[in-house]
Sequence to fold (93 residues):
Amino acid sequence: MRLKKSSFWTKLLLLVVSVYAIVTLVNLQDRVRGANAEVAALEQQVLYAEQEKALMEESLRDLGSDKSIMQIARARLGMVESGEIVFLDADAQ
Fold:
């Protein structure tokens, strides 16, 4: 009789441990999926930041050139080249 009783408790313990292991694995799998999605989003942000950095470095290199100075003078100061005709939009504010 003792052998059967011990066998029942052993089976019950194995069942509980198995259910716990399965629940833990499913939970960990969800966390891994979430972490992988976060990694992909962060990699996208890094790629965007690297592209933005490259554009800024290019702008910084070109900053002292004549073309850059002319663009800044036109945009910020409203300057024009000699002989250039400027049309103003009366409706624009």
About this structure: Helices lie at 2-62, 66-77. The two ends are 98 Å apart (CA to CA). The chain has a mean pLDDT of 88. Residues 2-62 form the longest helix (61 residues).
